[in-house]
Amino acid sequence: MNGKARKNKVVLGVYEDVTVQDIRNYVANRKGYKKIITTPESFWKVIEAIGDSIYSDYFLLFDECEKAVQDVGFREGIIDPIDAFFTFNGKAFISATPIIPSDPRFKDFTHINIKPAYNHEQAITVFTTNNIVYQLKSILDQYSSTSADRDRNYFIFFKSTKRIRNIIKGLKLTDYAVYCSETSAKDLRRNGIEHAYDQINDKFAKYNFLTNRFFSAVDIDYEDYHCDPIIIILSDVIAVEHSVIDPATEAVQIVGRFRKPERIEGEADIIVKKDAYHISNYNSKLTSFNETEVMAILEDKRKLHEFISTFKPVSDIEYINSFIDEILKINGFGYFLRKGDSNLNYFMVDNFKYKEQVKLYYQASTSLIERYKTVSHFTVTEESKFVAYSLTDEQLQNISDQTAYTTVNDFVSQRLKEIMESESTFNRSVNLPLLRFSYPDQMSVIDQYGLENASKLDYNINKISKQMEQSQGLKRLLPIIRYIQRTFKIKGYTSKEIEPLLTKGITETGLTDLKPTIQLLRNGAILSERTRIRKDENGNWLRGYEVLGYVHNF
Fold first, then answer.
1. pLDDT at residue 554, rounded to an integer
2. Residue 395: C-alpha distances to residues 209, 238, 250, 399, 453 (Å)
């Protein structure tokens, strides 16, 4: 909106580096209506710059208002403007996906619902599964196999940069970009993920990963994405519990990031096709309290907090004071109080209720699909279903990079045995590629040895590896073994006779790293125990070995 103007700005953006004086300069120089857009954390600078006249002269619009409830648990500063908000003569709390706060100061507000006169429902396919990465891979493979979809770009929304890094490395993606916070972008680059950015730019790739910083309040213009986007939302509640996504708010905001192309006079409208997916596992161990239970929990915490605070003994002993403070901290009710005045922080309470409600959608294999069916913004496709794999996220969670190699071998061996002993050919066709994808090192041993041969060793990778090492060793020694069997006759040889014969064979075969030892001779010949071979010219017995036969099982 400001174009190239640096001084006479139409709109002033206020964030970390913008000062109070910058705001004063804008107010003084801008003629006519003034529009200031600020982060909640920088709102105090606007108040300080303008003063009390702001409450009558300005209208305060709190946009994407559901974030005040959703984010306050980890971003407490998001509600810094709330007290001042109620002082403004003109104000509004708005969002396309609002969560109505329980703060009693909102009770007299007018609720206005704006409903589109056109069909705004987005078709979405919801897969619940026990292996989200492999289900993601199956979708990517599906599109890449179709010529009409091969050139489309993916936009993958996930709240965990660590899991994003693992996916990029696991799927061996090269044409990718990650959009996240500045701190996370630096961390990703330190860990080998070079294409990480903290702002939307023109560097969109084939595979684009976006964290929750870009779930809402960021418009991605068609000129930037310039394609029919494939939108994939990921939730991994096994490894990252906070990666849950609320279908009624966050999912709606995500699919709404991609703005329609601007209509050009005289040209046909550009129709953008958006395919949307949500892939998630589930965790039956997740706790979830309803609103009544939440309020009962808070009431119990309040009573204990007030009792301890009221009857807190005065002591000169630092340990006792620290102990009492620790009890209050463990009780946790202070978390739900406003800083400074000990009144109830309604947004923290709402955040608790909200998080417990959302967790309910991730406790069973059908819960998430059923929740999407109740959200008016979406139409759930018939392809939506639960997809099971023999190798699960829960199992993978227990096998880390630090797990001993032999332990991983045992784990893969057991999974492979279960798959191969299954009567379902479909099970084998789906899960064998999954094992190869997840454990390429272990499965390469199996594939080299052959599934049929592996079955004779009960698919035990440790035994198979040892067998292959022995087999490979004998194959390598085959030239020297043939030399031994050509050269050494069925008779006795002294130690002094054996060494030069073996040395000659080593030279002829080119296996120069070998030593002319009795053990090398045993690879091709069956020897007696050391014994007397014959007498020398002085009548003394010479000791050595008698060749009794030849080794044929190589």
1. 47
2. 25, 10, 29, 7, 27
- Spatial distance between the Cα atoms of 386 and 389, rounded to a whole number of angstroms: 10
Residues 68 and 76: their CA atoms lie apart, in Å, by 9
Q: Within 13 A of 538's CA, how many CA atoms are on the CB side? A: 3
Which residue is associated with the tokens 């008779």? 491
Q: What is the mean pLDDT of each run of 10 residues along the chain (554 residues)?
A: 75 91 93 93 96 97 95 91 96 95 95 90 96 94 88 95 92 94 94 92 91 88 90 96 96 92 81 95 92 92 86 73 82 84 90 95 96 96 95 82 73 90 79 86 87 90 83 76 90 91 92 89 85 82 87 61
* Length of the chain, in residues: 554
The torsion angles phi and psi of 8, rounded to 5 degrees, stand at -90, 70
- Smallest CA-to-CA distance from 167 within 236, 229, 231 is with 236
By CB atoms closer than 10 A (0-12, 13-18, 19+), residue 505 is buried
Q: In this predicted structure, what is the pLDDT of residue 473?
A: 65
Burial of residue 498, with CB atoms counted within 10 A of its CB: 0-12 exposed, 13-18 middle, 19 or more buried? buried
The structure's pTM equals 0.78
Token readout for 207 is 């595979």
Instruction: Show the tokens assigned to 265.
Output: 């006079």
Among 237, 249, 241, 248, residue whose Cα is nearest residue 279: 237
Tell me which DSSP letter residue 50 carries. Answer: H
Which residue in this structure is represented by tokens 């880390």? Answer: 400
Q: Token match 């067998």: residue?
A: 467
Helix (H, G, I), strand (E, B) or coil at 343: coil
| Mode of pairing for the β-strands spanning 122-129 and 378-380 | parallel
